[in-house]
Specification:
Elements: E1 5-7, H1 10-21, H2 26-31, E2 37-42, E3 46-53, E4 56-63, H3 69-74, E5 83-87, E6 99-107, E7 120-123, H4 126-136, E8 149-156, E9 162-170, E10 176-183, H5 192-206, E11 211-217, H6 221-230, E12 233-242
Helix pairs in contact: 5-6
Length: about 250
Amino acid sequence: MPGIETIRDFEVAMEKLRTIKGPNNYAELSSGDSSDFTLAAFSTSGFCGLWEIESGPWILGLGEFNTTLIPVLLEHAASDQIRVSVPRSWTEVELEKRSEWNFYLIESSTAPNQPLKHTVVELTSDEEIEAFIEKHDTDPSTRPGDSEIIFWHGIRNQSDELLAIGAAVRWKSGATMVVSIATAPSERGKSMAQEVTASLVKRLFEMGSLLVGLGVWAHNAPAIRAYERVGFQLQEEFVSGPLLRS
């Protein structure tokens, strides 16, 4: 299409994307390598990439909206059931169901150094973590046994009952993320999510990570406040969902 450049080589596409979004953009951090990558489409200041992942075709958009970016990729998708993640400013993209979320990063130069009110410990029992998840219906993005998990941290009370949890993971790209932060309902408002997050980040930086990321639902204001107090900076405001096909 006029004004649109397509690139099939993953490394070449990521190099061009850096000229639009800079280093450490979400596409590079989340996509890992070229094994699932199909095609990228570029306008002057916008990007869309198509990946064929385990759950089916996935399109990621970054930068400024262009009406022709997504259509260029659709003919290359292996299925009509396509999920997309695009900036929320791309209001022209119609989805069957919308899930709004934000992506944050923190750099090692701004490592958290706040005093903790609670003792945060490493958790080693998958059964205990799974029981906490089931008891409190936390709907985590990652569960015990996931191959990406590096370690879990948590907070207990004096009776050794688990009150809060969180995990650190390493994506295929090598990027490290904080995921599945959850607090027992009776303990919310006591800074436990913030302290578990800070502990996870501190340990990842000690292990050599230069950046740590996380995703959070846009409506979860208490979680967003906790992460920003740790030092996370907003990078992208996304909306995800199945693409509505006409």
